[in-house]
Amino acid sequence: MARVVVVFDFDKTIIDCDSDNWVVDELGATELFNQLLPTMPWNSLMDRTMRELHSQGKTIEEIAASLKRAPLHSQIITAIKLAYSLGCDLRIVSDANLFFIETILKHHGLIDYFSEINTNPSLVDEDGKLRIFPYHDFTCAPHGCDLCPPNMCKGIIMERIRSSILKEGKKQFIYLGDGNGDYCPSRQLGDEDYVMPRKNFPLWELIFTNSLVIKAEVHEWSNGEELERVLLYLIKTVVIEDDTYLCSIDLQVSNYTNIFT
Ligand SMILES: [Mg+2]
Ligand SMILES: [Zn+2]
């Protein structure tokens, strides 16, 4: 059973852009999107924009093709595969949507490395239109967290993951993210966990201006190369006392050990 659970944000963490903005820009809906942004929640606006694109004759295949062009650093692909091969349980918690994330992960051959994708649900309806729905039904049952947008509190998701996983025994978490929405789940982490905020992005700024509420050890990263190096270093640190992991990890991560010394 995995000792280390690695939880990834998706936009600007696994991929190097925001998938919502990427699709909206690629399909020429930026002006409409910006016009409507002050009038409705982001997640509802994505659904509205997909309806508009469909009415303009844009197909689901064109949306998928644009997603496959979204930038994803090759060393993040390597990091995901190595973390998995070292026995980590990899999960995604993202405020994008399932269609976007699955399309990108399948395109890069990464989908099977993740045990769970927590994100806004989506479907392609009978007209071929992509529909995007909120993770929490905020009209009937608001989540009540004032740090998070109405459609998704990543902290509640982390709490659920932690409480279900910690029943299995001692586990340690590594959380990677960049955005404001990653602050709430970062506060859920314990003092044996790690948080990896992307340097100079909103999560990093929130953590360094409110460092007392973060119990986890903080390790920043800036790009795909650093993400790989820091993540593998932490996995080695977390499991170093566990003899069953030690041999295989020493072989594979020996190149990363000297970076903080
Ligand atoms: Mg993000
Ligand atoms: Zn929250």
UniProtKB/TrEMBL annotation:
<dbReference type="InterPro" id="IPR016965">
    <property type="entry name" value="Pase_PHOSPHO-typ"/>
</dbReference>
<feature type="binding site">
    <location>
        <position position="178"/>
    </location>
    <ligand>
        <name>Mg(2+)</name>
    </ligand>
</feature>
<feature type="binding site">
    <location>
        <position position="20"/>
    </location>
    <ligand>
        <name>substrate</name>
    </ligand>
</feature>
<keyword id="KW-0378">Hydrolase</keyword>
<feature type="binding site">
    <location>
        <position position="9"/>
    </location>
    <ligand>
        <name>Mg(2+)</name>
    </ligand>
</feature>
<feature type="binding site">
    <location>
        <position position="95"/>
    </location>
    <ligand>
        <name>substrate</name>
    </ligand>
</feature>
<feature type="active site" description="Nucleophile">
    <location>
        <position position="9"/>
    </location>
</feature>
<protein>
    <submittedName>
        <fullName>Inorganic pyrophosphatase 1</fullName>
    </submittedName>
</protein>
<dbReference type="InterPro" id="IPR036412">
    <property type="entry name" value="HAD-like_sf"/>
</dbReference>
<feature type="binding site">
    <location>
        <position position="11"/>
    </location>
    <ligand>
        <name>Mg(2+)</name>
    </ligand>
</feature>
<dbReference type="InterPro" id="IPR023214">
    <property type="entry name" value="HAD_sf"/>
</dbReference>
<dbReference type="InterPro" id="IPR006384">
    <property type="entry name" value="HAD_hydro_PyrdxlP_Pase-like"/>
</dbReference>
<feature type="active site" description="Proton donor">
    <location>
        <position position="11"/>
    </location>
</feature>
<dbReference type="GO" id="GO:0046872">
    <property type="term" value="F:metal ion binding"/>
</dbReference>
<dbReference type="GO" id="GO:0016791">
    <property type="term" value="F:phosphatase activity"/>
</dbReference>
<keyword id="KW-0460">Magnesium</keyword>
<dbReference type="Pfam" id="PF06888">
    <property type="entry name" value="Put_Phosphatase"/>
</dbReference>
<keyword id="KW-0479">Metal-binding</keyword>
